[in-house]
Write a structure and sequence with these properties.
Elements: H1 3-31
């Protein structure tokens, strides 16, 4: 795995985790 692929992988992982946190918080607030 070269450096470019690693960078792309981590950036996608970060975007994915941030979006999950955002949506879970939104759903949590909506159901409270």
């Amino acid at each position: 795995m070269n450096n470019m692929m690693s960078h792309k992988y981590w950036s996608w992982l970060g975007v994915f985790s941030v979006s999950i946190l955002f949506w879970s918080q939104l759903i949590w607030l909506a159901f409270l």
